[in-house]
Write a structure and sequence with these properties.
With about 220 residues, the chain is mainly α. The protein is built from nine helices and three strands. Strands 1-2-3 form a three-stranded antiparallel sheet. It is globular, with a radius of gyration of 21 Å.
């Protein structure tokens, strides 16, 4: 699906990331987030009897992870590619890959950082700079500035459902996707924002508790 998206994917918002099925579109990179962990888990389960934690045994999983990262990066969707890469590496860490792999990878990453920076597209470089606190508030920092205004203007209890001015007057870009939390904070205020954060915290700790209670990493 990722390969198909590169050649025949639907183009929109500067990227070729979707597959158009006529009545709706799917984003294969999002499916990769679900299917890669399933693949890696199944692979380690099938190899559990002969798993000696040598680097060679991890190559199939590393290969799929790297190919998926490059295909998603090609779309281009660097954010999703990095999410998949880092979650995959965390899985490999817990699966028992040698620490030397991460040490050598970190050294290589530091050495090649200047080259990697120039390989990024201009808008991707600007996103990194914005994350570091730089950028023009009327250009590349516009979205984050407006989201902060929306969150701050919500006050304690918010402006009321469907009454957020930053959202309704279209000052806030991508209000239904990337900045949906800003909309919630503006309409329901600090109380609503904290409630959402608490719900996510409960979900996180429930998942953590389930993970810690698993006695075998190869449980069926």
């Amino acid at each position: 699906l990722l390969v198909f998206t590169i050649f025949k994917g639907h183009i929109g918002m500067g990227g070729q990331r979707w597959v158009d099925l006529g009545f709706f579109r799917i984003q294969p990179s999002e499916l990769a987030k679900l299917f890669f962990p399933a693949y890696a888990t199944y692979y380690f389960y099938t190899e559990k009897d002969t798993l000696s934690f040598t680097f060679r045994q991890f190559l199939p999983v590393l290969g799929v992870l790297l190919i998926s990262f490059l295909l998603i990066r090609k779309q281009p969707d660097l954010g999703t590619a990095l999410v998949l890469l880092f979650t995959g590496l965390i899985m490999l860490w817990f699966a028992g890959i040698k620490r030397h792999f991460f040490i050598y990878s970190g050294i290589i990453l530091l050495i090649t950082a200047p080259i990697s920076w120039h390989l990024l597209k201009e808008y991707q470089q600007k996103r990194v700079l914005v994350f570091l606190g730089q950028g023009d508030s009327k250009k590349e920092r516009y979205q984050i500035e407006q989201s902060q205004i929306a969150i701050g203007s919500g006050g304690i209890l918010g402006k009321g459902l469907l009454k957020g001015t930053q959202n309704k007057l279209q000052f806030l870009p991508e209000s239904r996707t990337d900045f949906i939390f800003s909309v919630i904070a503006e309409e329901t205020g600090f109380a609503g924002a904290i409630f959402i954060i608490v719900l996510f915290a409960i979900l996180f700790f429930q998942l953590l508790w389930i993970t810690l209670s698993i006695k075998s990493p190869f449980v069926q």
